[in-house]
Design a protein that fits this description.
The structure is a homodimer of 80-residue chains.
Chain A (H helix, E strand, L loop, with lengths): L1 E10 L6 H12 L4 E15 L3 H16 L5 E7 L1
Antiparallel strand pairs in A: 1-2, 1-3
Chain lengths: 80, 80
Amino acid sequence: MKCDVIITITLKEGMLNPEAEAIQRAIAHLGYTTDRLATADQFRFTLDAEDKKQAEEIARSICERLLANPVIHTYTIEVI
Amino acid sequence: MKCDVIITITLKEGMLNPEAEAIQRAIAHLGYTTDRLATADQFRFTLDAEDKKQAEEIARSICERLLANPVIHTYTIEVI
């Protein structure tokens, strides 16, 4: 079956994120006050799998072997 | 009130996305077949606003003036 997968990769709590800091400063220049700004990378794709469980296992393997760096990243997997 | 906002920015349909193509090829090298891989940038932050409606308006302004390029991007706003 075809499964739609959404992988979201974020920096672990406590990791420095200069991009987020820069964006928060830029938003402040627009006149808005934001707090705890975080960035995330999202990857969406369709996958051939036997069932949702297998699709999630494949997505987990893709995260651990390719998309996420386990030292600095956490990830969530959503199979639709 | 404090509102949590999630902004997701994607390339418009039909836009070339070499990053997505490279990732899809890399996943194929791992032995998995994926289809229609798309990437998105997500920004999450807390915002001070009178209500959810105002938070969404501020988020829309941030998208249009800073985060998204209307020529190539579409965006979704989620206020929690």
